[in-house]
Amino acid sequence: MTHPSSDLPRNISRPLAAALVAAAGLLTASPVSSATPERAGSVAAGAEILAAPDIPIGNVKAHLAQLQSIATANGGNRAHGRTGYKASIDYVKGKLDAAGFTTTLQQFTSSGSTGYNLIADWPGGDPNQVLMAGAHLDSVSSGAGINDNGSGSAAVLETALAVSRAQLQPTKHLRFAWWGAEELGLVGSKYYVNSLSATDRARVSGYINLDMVGSPNPGYFVYDDDPAIEKVFKDWYTGIGVPTEIETEGDGRSDHASFKNVGIPVGGLFTGASRTKTAAQAAKWGGTSGQAFDRCYHSSCDTNTNINDVALDHNSDALAHAIWTLGTAEPLPPGESYESAADVAIPDNAAAVTSALAVSGRTGNAPAALRVGVDIKHTWRGDLVVDLLAPDGTAYRLKNSSSSDSEDNVITTYTVDASSETANGTWRLRVQDVASQDTGYIDRRDDLADPAAREALLDGLGVVAVEIGLVPPRH
C-alpha cells in the first residue's frame, strides 16, 4: 500500500441505489440490450450460486515463502525496477501458465525503470462481463513486503489456482492481476486502466482488491464502495462470526482507486497498516490495543514472520467466496427487468424526492410478498424516511427517521404486501431527509447490496439513476 500524502477523509457524498424486486410472478420487461453489461452483483431470480472451496492456508504461505526467498536473494526487497520484482512476477506467471491461464505481461516505465503488470485470464465466461481480482506485487525498497503486499498477491494467486483445480465454468469472464509500482503511486494499475478502451472498461463488471490481508495485529476491514461486493464480503464474515468494519485507512491509497476513478465498481479487503488498534477493536478481534495493526509497515521487518495466519486464511477464503458468488451467478436474462434513469439528489432537510418507473404490458396484481431491496448511501441514515409508492399513490412505509441512528447508509430488504395493487402503472421510491447536515444521492452505477434486490438488472452505464426491477421467479 502506498504512503498516504495525508489522512484522507471519507467521501461523505456517496451514491444511492434502490430496487424493487417481485417475489412472485409479475413482470417481463422490455429487453435489455446485450451490449449493456451487468454490474458486479447482478444475478437472476432463483439463481443457484456454486459454493467456493476452502483455500488451503499452507498453499498461500508457500507462496509467501517463495516471495521471501526471492527478496532475500535480491537485496532484501522486491521493489519496482529491482531484480526481486521481476523474479516475483516470473514466479507468479509460471504458476498460472502451468494451471491453464492465458497470461499477459504488460510493460510500462516509471522512474526510469521498466515495470510489469501480470494479467491472467481464465478461459470461458461472458467476455462482456469481466470480473477482476488483483493485488500489487511490488514491495518498498526497505524490505521484502511480505504483508504489504505479498499477502494479497498470494491470496489472489491461490484463489486463481483454485479456479483451475475446480475447472470452474463461470458465467462471467474471470481475470486476475498483479500490479507493479503501486508503492510509487498506483502506477501499474493506472497504466492498465488507461490502456483500456471505453468499451473494454465498460466490460469490467467489478474489481476486487486485496492489499495487506495478513497484518500481525489484524482488523477485518471491508471496502464500502460497490454495495454488491461489500455485502458479499460482509455476509461471509457474518457467517463465520467475525465482525467487520468499513475500511478507511487505505481509502484511495491502493489499486482499486485506479478502477474506481473511471467508474468501475470496486471492493476489497484489508487488515490494517500503521494506524493503532483501539481497545474496542481488540475486544472484538483480539490482538493488542494501542499497537499498530502492522508495526512493520514499510519496514525491513515486513518478512514472512510478519503474518497472522488466521487473518490471511480468512481473507483468502473470503476472496474465493466472492469470486465464486459473483463469477458464477446466473445473469438475468433479457426481458425480465424494468429500469428508470433520473438524476435524483436527496436534499438536506427538505422535501421528499422520488424516482419513478413506468410499468406497462403486465396483467394482474403485484405479489403479497413484494421484496423491496433498498441501498441508500447517506452519512446519517437516521435522517431518512423511505416509502414505496404504488401506482395509485398508496404509500408503504419502509423506514422511519430516528435521531439516535447515527450510522451510515440503509442497506436492507423490506417486504411489502402489494397484492391489492395492480402491476401496471408508475411505481416510485420516495426518500426524504428530515434533519440537517447530511445528504445522499440516487445513483445507478451501484449494484444492489441485497441478494434479492440484485435480481433486478443494473446496466451500470449511466451516472445517476434509480433501478426498480420487478422480476418473476425462474422455473
Please write out the topology.
Blueprint: E1 17-21, H1 57-72, H2 83-98, E2 102-110, E3 113-121, E4 126-136, H3 146-166, E5 172-179, H4 187-195, H5 198-203, E6 204-210, E7 221-222, H6 227-239, E8 245-246, H7 256-260, E9 266-270, H8 279-285, H9 309-327, E10 344-346, E11 353-359, E12 370-378, E13 384-389, E14 395-399, E15 410-416, E16 425-433, E17 440-442
Parallel strand pairs: 4-5, 4-6, 6-9, 7-8
Antiparallel strand pairs: 1-12, 2-3, 3-5, 7-9, 10-17, 11-16, 12-15, 12-17, 13-14, 13-16
Helix pairs in contact: 1-2, 1-3, 3-9, 6-9
CATH fold node name of the largest domain? Aminopeptidase
CATH superfamily of the largest domain: Zn peptidases
Shape: globular
What is the chain-wise order of helices and strands? EHHEEEHEHHEEHEHEHHEEEEEEEE
Main beta sheet strand tally, sense and closure: 8 strands, mixed
Binned, the helix content reads 10-25%
What's the pLDDT, averaged over the residues? 81
Fraction in beta strands: 15-25%
Q: Please tell me how large the radius of gyration is.
A: 23 Å
Separate helix tally: 9
Domain tally: 2
**Strands, total number:** 17
Residue stretches low in confidence (pLDDT < 50, at least 5 long) are 5-39, 41-48, 332-340, 443-475
CATH structural class of the largest domain? Alpha Beta
Architecture of the largest domain in CATH? 3-Layer(aba) Sandwich
Helix-strand makeup class: alpha+beta
Neighbour order of strands in the largest sheet? 2-3-5-4-6-9-7-8
